[in-house]
Amino acid sequence: MSDFISNFWHLYVAGITLVSIIACLILLWFSGKAKAMTANDNTTGHVWDGDLREMNNPLPRWWVGLFIITIVFAFVYLAMYPGVGNLAGKFGWTSAGQYDAEVAKANAEVAPLYAKFSGMSPEEVSKDPQAMAIGDRLFMNNCAQCHGSDARGSKGFPNLADNDWLYGGSPDVIKATLTQGRNGNMPPMAAAVGTPEDVRNVAHYVLSLSGSPHDSLRASLGKSKFGACAACHGMDGKGNHAMGAPNLTDDVWLHGWGENAIVNMINNGKVNQMPAQASKLTEGQIHVLASYVWGLSNKTAVAQ
Question: Lesser CB count within 10 Å: N end or C end of the chain?
């Protein structure tokens, strides 16, 4: 990968760009100086369709002038804008800067709309039809790709409508998750649990915590080995919001259900990431979006 970010490539691009323009100049000069072998009537001897003869006439002046103007424009453009390797150009224009400017302009235009909701609590915002319509659009544009258009998620992506939360489901926690993102890490625990049989036993004990189908004998053998997991999930298996450790007693399975899925999790661990949205959304947008997400799992409170 380092080959693609070395200093060689910007020099390569700069060289290709400048050589191409200079080659055009040489071609133009050569076409004006080169003399073709012609007959007395200024024809080259090439004939098409019986009587269509090629003449050795010079290029039209307007065409030559337009060609020169194009080359001059290319040099001026490269001096003003980036195009010669990593040189920024006199104006210092970048596509990222253009994007940021357009986003800032758009945010300034809609700021008065979000200002209306900034003084309202998330619970109040979740009851406002206009705010929820805006929140729905924000969710579709920024969250639905992972959590689904119905916010019910899929394997590896949490359901936001079931009131089961890894880090807590209060409006403030949801807002913090949107702003800062989350990095969940379940380390491989096989070595701490014991033998492969111990891992299977623990898997059945975990299944028993939620009343899921399991082997009761293996579950009883795995209970003592569950102590390796209790530091995060608690001795009762109900998880820890401060660490993002899932509740293992509620029959909600983010990464798959069953003995094989749990054994794989214990053996290999899992890393999940929720990207931070602070760089994409304004504070007002995050406030409305957090209120919308909170309302998805608190429909009874919203309806009151």
Answer: N
Q: Please report how many Cα atoms fall inside a 13 Å half-sphere around the Cα of residue 105, on the Cβ side.
A: 6
In whole angstroms, give the CA distance from residue 127 to residue 66: 64
Phi-psi region of 251 (alpha: psi -120 to 50; beta: other; left: phi over 0): left
Given a cut of 60, is residue 64 above it in pLDDT? yes
Is 274 annotated in a binding site? The answer is yes
Is 186 assigned to a binding site? yes
pLDDT at residue 109 in the model: 93
Q: Tell whether 232 is in a known binding site.
A: yes
169 vs 122: CA distance, rounded Å: 12
Q: How confident is the model at residue 159 (pLDDT cuts 50, 70, 90)?
A: very high
| 233 marked among binding-site residues | yes
% of the chain beyond a pLDDT of 90: 71
Q: Consult the annotation and say whether 146 binds a ligand.
A: yes
Q: Is residue 264 part of a domain?
A: yes
**Any known ligand binding at 147?**
yes
pLDDT for the residue numbered 2: 55
Strands (E), 97-203: 182-186
Do 225 and 173 reside in the same domain of the chain? no
**CATH number of the domain enclosing 287:** 1.10.760.10
**Domain of residue 201, residue span:** 185-274
> Do 73 and 10 fall into the same domain?
yes
